[in-house]
Description:
The protein is mainly alpha-helical. Among the domains are: about 180 residues, no CATH class; about 120 residues, no CATH class. The chain has 48 helices and six strands. The strands form three sheets. The protein has a two-stranded antiparallel sheet with strand order 1-2. Helix 3 packs antiparallel against helix 14, helix 35 packs parallel to helix 38 and helix 41 packs parallel to helix 44.
Amino acid sequence: MLATAAADTNNRSISVTPDEQGGAAGSTAAAKAAPWEGPQRRLNHFVRTVAFLERAGNGLGTLAFTWATVVILGGFSTNLGPDFWYATAIVFLEAFRVFSRESRSDDELLFKTTGGIRLKRVKLIGNVPYYLNVGIVMVCLYGTIEFLLIHYKYLPHPPHRMPYHFILLAVLLALGSMVQLPTIVKHMKGHPLLQSSPLVAVLAFGGVLLWTNAPARFAALVVAPLFVGCLQYSLIAACLHRTNILLHLPLPIWLQKLGTLIFPVWIAISVPIAFGPMGILILLGTLLVGNIQIPMALARIGLSSMRLSSKESHKIPNSDNNNEHLAPALKIFYSMVLGQGTLYILACICESVLFHFLRGSLAWALSDVKEGFESVDLYYEHAYDKCMADGVLAQEDLNLVRFAVDSLSSNSRTKKLAAVQILHSLLLPREASNKLHVAEITTSTKAVATLISMLSWTRPQDQDIRFFAAKIVTELAGDLLIVGIPGTIQIVSSLLDSDAKNSLAMQSISAQRGDTNEQSKDNWKLTSHGSAAGVGIKGVEAGYQTLTILQDYSAHAAANNSKWCYKICKFLRSVKDMVSVPKEVKEPWKDEDSFPIQGMLILEKLTHNPDNCAEINRAAGLIRKIIGFMSYTTDTTNVTEERKKLYVTSALKLITKLVSAKGEIGLALRQKISEQPFLLSNLAEILEDSRNGIDQQLTMVILSKLALDDETSHEIGRFQLFIPKLMQAFLGRYESINKYYNSSLQMVAGEALSNLSMENSANCLSILDETRYDLIDNLKDMIQNDEYAYFAATLLQNLCAHSRDKLQHLGSSECFSSALQVVLLKMMVAEGKQLESLIGLVSQIYTVIPEHFAHKLESHENARGLVEKLVGTLNCNKKPSHEYPRMRRVIVEMAISIVDSCPHYATIFREQGMMEALTMVESTPSKVEKYMVFFGDIGVVPERGLPLRDLVAKAKGLTESSTSTPGAQLVILHD
């Protein structure tokens, strides 16, 4: 019906159509690809390039390993001289990679170059304390081991110590990578014991210096800044906070911020002074922890280049067994090692330079991955591992959708969160050209079941995943068949049970994603869990957000109108933006993102399928929950008025979908909904509230569908509010501007009134009791408008059928006579349902004003055309349609009315073939004509008039027995 179509506005379900490839869903009309596909394609090409460089390097390394062990060490071991040790070192270096092949990639630990110089793991400027802690640990370990070796005389004299220093540093870097030192430091926040590890390292270093009788100046220069650096963010801040020193001795904010930066600078200066050139290497080594592949690759290049460029290489003095093949063999070996190292370095440089740009391009194209691009990082790691495992030449189709779908089954919460973030971004309905091909999601029962199960995750730490899963399922619901996923409706129903606690949890998480600068009035207050270095700035994740320091510094500078302060802050911010990828602040949850609203949206879209509707009908207590939201006065704690309004609108849309369901399940749903005790009172409250036209329109649609049931129609009529409000919407005007209501509201109100008046004399009398309107004249005028003709004619037809006495008593003969003329003219151009209602109205007008009816027909200027229209329509409806099942009945009834009032019309009917048409109707009975109204293919309002066979017999009798009169002949001649 038209009202149903009007009620379906704002439907945001994804339009999915099968494409030519056999099932991929998407917008076939879209001429260009989605915005994210181009950046994804470029990132995939980049991944394959990096993987190719690494696999080529691995291949050269394996070949060099085999060449060294079999050809060089196996064939020339006694003739190598110094090359023996170089080859042995390279072989052991390569063997470490070869024997690590159980990992997902050949070089997972020491040789993996994914991420290049992996500063993306820890942001350089924003996480200075991270590097401070790693640097403190590395300096202390190096100093402790060095001084112990010197004390016990395991190191040679100073002129010969440099190679041993290099070996010691390389070993420390390798051990740091193997024990995953960066991960340990990064997770210090939740582990008090780990937080104390830098302090333990400093104390151990100091103890060793005392034990070895090191110079006091050396201890003061090195240990002091290390010790203060450890305490800077933890012990000192705790003391200041607990003893309220700052309350008695207020410090300028610039001095407080200066203290957070001065000690790292002190350490960076004192360590090179104490350890010489090795100090610089130690500090640089801090950046290489977790990226040991860089020095390893450089070692390959250095060793091989040194031997290839040496003039004395491959010469074996005083040897009679000099083999002419030794030198070429060594050159081939060192060339392969040089190529391997060069490819590794090239892969690292290429990735470090281009990766951040490509990652940012894809993340911004998705426009919703705002968590520091972690989701894109995980996709990159996945694509890299795929290329390394399957080969760069393998035709592996790498795409975000498949990665996200596969990640849903992961045991890692991080991967699950990344998966739902990506899917949510890709499913955002932005424009026609950017609709996602959702087949890979909807055809994966496991993925859909996982997404649905996420809707039941109620732990506070899982609210992010639950939120994104709800948004994804909302977008996919229009394509889902949930019969094969048991418990789906119960899980979705749980979203409607989200109480104030869930709302507060969402608001809390949303606030944490907002501006961190607003979360703390006391910038030196300790966080509840501490941090990697015990940082005491509340609201700053991991305590390392230098950005917040800059924001506070900027605010202080602006407050004091200090130009130079502001310029310094602006410069530091620009530096920070250049060297790190900003972590975007995620928008807070909005009212329409609440779980009850998402749950009702999911249910609304699931109603596209009758099987889904059957599952909804079987769900215990679900209808009651939905109707509970249909009230502006519902007592919901901690819920804003705006959200209450959204609850009402969402519930109305869902109930509208349910009452509009077709077939037998539609009958069951309407019956179940009409039995709810608070339904009509809630609808009356909404209809009385004139603030929201959409809610009123949806309410009228619900009333019109429920009114098709006789008992419910009587219950609606007994509410004295409904009919006056419907009359006002259908016939009334806005008092301020004297204009009718909008057309969509008028149509649904007209449908509701026509359904309420159908076979219901009490409701018809209630309609006639509304004396504020010139009802007949208004309906006559609306009949002339194609938009409202069907509802106006149906309503007037029902009033004539069930309130004939009152209409005659009101003395509306002239109004009906004028309306009859309009209806007869409208009939000549009408078709379908509109024609059915107009023909039925003519017959009912005859019962109200028979004398005026006969006069109008006698003076009708196109009698033959009128009869021809009726007979032609009857012949065209040999098979009754469920869209207008009464067409043949109302034509027969009108023919009876015409011939009964004007017998001379019988001649015209016979000439136009009415007798043959009536015989055809008599010989083709149909069960469709036993109903007045169909909902889909199910009859919902039975026909209560005389059987059609009896009407046909009466029409045939009148047409055969009536004879023409002189007056009639005159009329015919005038035609």
